[in-house]
Design brief:
The structure holds three protein chains of three kinds.
Chain A (H helix, E strand, L loop, with lengths): L2 H5 L2 H15 L7 H27 L7 H18 L3 H23 L4 H21 L9 E2 L10 H28 L2 H11 L1 H6 L4 H27 L1 E2 L1 H4 L2 H14 L4 H20 L7 H15 L3 H9 L3 H4 L2
Antiparallel strand pairs in A: 1-2
Chain B lengths: L1 H31 L6 H19 L7 H20 L7 H23 L13 E3 L2 E3 L1 H23 L1 H11 L1 H6 L4 H24 L9 H15 L4 H18 L5 H18 L13
Antiparallel strand pairs in B: 1-2
Helix pairs in contact in B: 1-5, 1-8, 1-9, 1-10, 2-3, 2-8, 2-9, 3-8, 5-6, 5-8, 6-8, 9-10, 9-11
Chain C lengths: L2 E12 L2 E12 L3 E5 L6 H8 L7 E6 L2 E2 L5 H6 L2 E3 L12 H11 L6 H15 L14 H14 L4 E5 L7 H16 L3 E5 L3 H7 L2 E6 L2 E6 L1 H6 L1 H8 L2 H10 L1
Parallel strand pairs in C: 3-8, 3-9, 6-7, 7-8
Antiparallel strand pairs in C: 1-2, 1-4, 4-5, 9-10
Helix pairs in contact in C: 3-4, 3-5, 4-5, 7-10, 9-10
Classes of the chains: A mainly alpha, B mainly alpha, C alpha/beta.
Bound molecules: adenosine-5'-triphosphate and magnesium ion.
Chain lengths: 325, 288, 250
């Protein structure tokens, strides 16, 4: 659906406003602590929202969405470190490379249906991690350290962190708009049909293998860039951080919590989850039980609120469906 | 020549245990189309049961078998009521997510209690020598026990009243309900059996190799590979496919770094599924 | 009349069961061709072969001059072939309108979304589901789901429509209504191949009839000819009620 048509809907502007508030909130009073918290939210929203393209639209569970994030991180950090590429170009190349790779993987493993695909995605993480651990240009299992002067082109460390923050918020915003644009397009309708009943969709003419591979590839692009930014910011990357399955799992919890298949829900879910996690991390009793709490939360959602938060809101306030998508 | 033969024999011994583990997964899968993602963790639970009884209490290792079997059964029935019961008949992805979340909870608890340290249970049994090669006694006994348990499961499914009810439910749940089989109870018992088998297999693996709380992932993967090779919902196929995987692993291990074994097994899993969508020993309906 | 769909010695085996055996017949432009036969005769399997769910073991399927043997279902849909399912397959969590829009978007015309909405509304109107357009497909009654199947196939603006038992499970009023809908679709120039067990209905509706038994063609001809065909009566004698109906209808 063309942009102009999207802009006629109220949700477009609600989203724009929310993103603007998000971007500017830490600027007032130079609130660095808030900025650091929000940049993590932005990562969660980016991951969950792109995961949602697969999960909520096409109905495919991807347990390994973290590979996109990690591979993007590696590609970007490597280009910056070994070839002294500027950040912007490295990010873009990371995004494109990972998308192309996802397309190739996708054409292979998306021949597996339903649960088998979900199982295979775990394998992709294992394979990519094993590759990173054995690939010498990427420093093997000790990873890559960036030197301190990488922030100089961005105007020194203090300013660079702000630049990275705004870039991360931009990536988040693009993720949400990508979700929204796909949902309101013919492509999105085809995906939703696949998610409901893949055989029926194919019989209605939806080119299922192509669409699945395309959405898998699309769902890789922005997470790869987010990974690039994230690991550029930490100036360090190693396999166990880059391909940490907990982050994939959390993205899944976030998407389910907010309401799979909705654009706004994923953002709200990420926010709620981060709040909860922040609380758990600071309370001494729960600090060790993060995984347990994620699991319990997911179980409750799956058992009692399969539509997530948005499903709940839609059910009790049907009119919100027209405004929040 | 003798070396090859020895590694094949050892592969068969270990493979029998892998096959047993996979039977636990495939039983649940075949009867109710639920993929139990706690499978790996249940295997690990069996290992820790063994550790608790053998190392901490000092009992002979194989005495852990009955308590692990019973504990596994009870855990399975509980798992059924918490995570599976509401999912039967809903889209299969939902049961995948519900067992996945239970697994997260268990792993979260396990790591906060035991950390990720390596545990080892020493089994002192005389080995069997063939020329220069010695097969550890633990491997032989584990294989024999695995074969015995697999055979009893087979007999249970084929001969006993309850086993026949399980097969009837697997074939056609509505019809089974109509002829008066209490399907819900049968499903709960099936999950109980599946988890008990996973636990016992884990206990046996614990007598062979050291383990951590996170070892479950790789054994779960092996069960998936075995299930794909053996045909979904086909316990007998699983046993043979387990042997095949054990032999393959024995043959491949000397030549590839450890971090790649898992990847190779995954590649095998994907390949098998792409080429034979129903498993190689294709699941005839009601293969159970 | 020109031939739209041409089946040439098509066969399909499932394990030990020969579901369709050496079957040849053709569907002519603009006609309604009825396909009948006892349960398990291979009628639905034939539909699955035509629209690419299964590839036939032998034989060729020519649609509108194009060899579509073994093509994937979504390619077949693009050529202008749409179908309904004997066991309804609604996209449950989408609205009736969206269900039909999928059909229109990805069918023969490959319409953009906005135009597809119009086509979908038109199809919904023909199927008589106007007041259900905004409803989720899972909330429809079984009769409405059958009509949704039809509307969705129709929205694709196909050249040939395959209807698999759209009348079964409907009450007499609903059957009357559905027959009217099928007639109207034909009047719009769509060729129809229809499977049906209700003899009265199909004999009245079809221009010609093909009879299948054990995957083979038993008879082919005008409804009246087929109804008098001794082998057809024999095949149906396993079911005396149907045999009686057949005689009555002929
Ligand atoms: N996917 C399949 N795998 C195995 N056997 C199948 C499959 N589909 C159909 N069959 C078998 O092929 C035969 C023909 O089935 P089909 O559904 O084509 O019959 P039909 O003529 O449509 O019958 P009905 O009037 O009951 O709908 C049946 O014996 C059926 O069991
Ligand atoms: Mg049929």
């Amino acid at each position: 659906m063309p942009l102009v048509r999207l802009m006629r809907r109220p949700f477009f502007w609600i989203l724009a406003l929310a993103i603007a508030v998000f971007a500017l909130a830490p600027v007032f009073g130079n609130n660095v602590a808030l900025r650091e918290a929000l940049i993590l939210d932005a990562v969660y929203i980016t991951l969950a929202s792109n995961l949602n393209l697969m999960l909520g639209y096409a109905g495919y569970i991807n347990f390994g969405s973290i590979v996109f994030f990690g591979l993007g991180g590696y590609t970007c950090v490597w280009l910056v470190n070994s070839y002294h590429w500027p950040l912007g170009a490295s990010l873009l190349v990371a995004g494109v490379c990972v998308s192309v790779l996802a397309l190739i993987f996708g054409l292979g493993i998306l021949r597996l249906r339903g649960a088998f695909f979900a199982l295979a995605t775990v394998g992709i993480v294992e394979a990519v991690q094993a590759f990173a651990e054995n690939f010498t240009p990427w420093g093997g299992s000790s990873g890559i350290y960036l030197s301190g002067d990488i922030f100089t082109p961005l105007g020194g460390p203090a300013r660079a962190l702000w630049v990275i923050y705004f870039m991360m918020v931009a990536v988040m915003g693009l993720s949400l708009y990508l979700s929204y644009a796909i949902k309101s397009s013919k492509f999105g309708l085809g995906l939703l049909a696949i998610g409901q009943n893949e055989d029926a969709a194919a019989i209605l003419g939806v080119p299922t293998p192509l669409y699945k591979a395309l959405v898998y590839s699309a769902s890789a692009f922005l997470p790869a860039i987010a990974g690039g930014l994230y690991f550029f910011k930490s100036a360090f990357i190693q396999p166990s951080d880059a391909f940490d399955l907990t982050l994939s799992t959390e993205a899944l919890v976030v998407a389910m919590l907010g309401g799979q298949g909705t654009v706004a829900g994923v953002a709200i879910g990420a926010f709620l989850y981060e709040e909860l996690r922040g609380y758990l991390l600071t309370s001494s009793m729960f600090a060790n039980f993060q995984l347990f709490v994620s699991g319990a939360l997911l179980l409750l959602i799956v058992l009692f609120f399969p539509g997530g938060l948005m499903g709940f809101i839609y059910r009790h306030f049907p009119r919100t469906q027209k405004v929040l998508e | 020549m003798l070396g090859v033969l020895a590694s094949i024999i050892d592969g068969v011994l270990v493979g029998l245990v892998y096959g047993l583990a996979a039977m636990g997964l495939t039983l649940i899968w075949g009867v109710m189309d639920v993929i139990n993602l706690t499978h790996g963790t249940m295997i690990v639970a069996g290992m820790f049961g063994l550790y608790g009884l053998a190392s901490a209490v000092g009992a002979p290792p194989y005495l852990a078998l009955p308590p692990v079997l019973i504990g596994g059964f009870l855990a399975g029935v509980l798992l059924y009521w918490v995570a599976v019961h509401r999912m039967v008949g809903r889209p299969p992805l939902m049961s995948l997510l519900s067992t996945f979340s239970i697994n997260l909870m268990l792993i979260g608890l396990g790591t906060s209690i035991w950390g990720t340290a390596l545990f080892n249970v020493e089994v002192a049994l005389p080995g069997f020598s063939l020329g220069r090669y010695t097969f550890p006694g633990a491997h032989i006994l584990a294989a024999v026990l695995a074969a015995l348990i697999a055979a009893s499961l087979y007999l249970f499914l084929q001969r006993s009243r309850l086993g026949k009810a399980v097969r009837a439910v697997a074939n056609n749940r509505e019809a089974a309900e109509l002829v008066g089989i209490p399907t819900t109870r049968v499903l709960a018992i099936t999950v109980g059996c599946g988890v008990a088998i996973a636990g016992v297999a884990g206990m046996l693996i614990g007598t062979l190799f050291p383990f951590t709380i996170l070892s479950g992932d790789s054994y779960q993967l092996k069960s998936f590979v075995v299930t794909a090779l053996g045909g979904f919902g086909n316990p007998v196929g699983a046993l043979f496919a387990g042997i095949a995987l054990g032999v393959l692993e024995g043959a491949v291990t000397p030549f590839v770094p450890v971090s790649w074994t898992l990847v190779i097994e995954f590649a095998l899993f994907v390949l098998v599924l792409v080429v034979f969508p129903g498993g190689i020993f294709a699941a005839r309906r009601g293969a159970l | 009349m020109s031939v739209l769909l041409d089946l040439r010695e098509v066969s399909k085996r499932f394990g030990g069961l020969q579901a369709v055996r050496n079957l040849s017949f053709d569907v002519r432009q603009g006609e309604i061709l009825g396909l009948i036969g006892p349960n398990g005769a291979g009628k639905s399997t034939l539909f699955n072969l035509i629209n690419g769910v299964f590839a036939p073991d032998h034989g060729r399927i020519i649609f509108d001059g194009i060899d579509i043997t073994g093509e994937r279902p979504y390619r077949v849909a693009r050529y202008g072939l749409a179908r309904t399912h004997q066991i309804v397959q609604p996209l449950t969590n989408l609205t009736v309108l969206d269900n039909c829009t999928v059909g229109a978007c990805f069918g023969r015309k490959n319409l953009p979304l906005a135009r597809a909405h119009e086509a979908a509304r038109e199809a919904i109107a023909i199927a008589g589901l106007e007041n259900r357009a905004a409803m989720l497909a899972l909330n429809l009654t079984i009769a409405e789901k059958k009509r949704l199947e039809l509307a969705r196939a129709l929205a694709a603006q196909p050249k040939l429509l395959l209807l698999d038992e759209v009348l079964s499970g409907l009450n007499p009023t609903e059957v009357e209504h559905m027959i009217g809908v099928v007639r109207r679709i034909r009047e719009r120039g769509v060729t129809i191949l229809i499977i049906e067990h209700l003899m009265q209905a199909i004999m009245g509706l079809s221009d010609r009839i093909v009879v299948l038994n054990f995957g083979q063609k038993l008879a082919e001809g005008l409804p009246a000819e087929v109804a008098r065909h001794p082998q057809v009566i024999e095949a149906y004698l396993g079911d005396p009620k149907l045999a009686a109906e057949l005689q009555g209808a002929g």
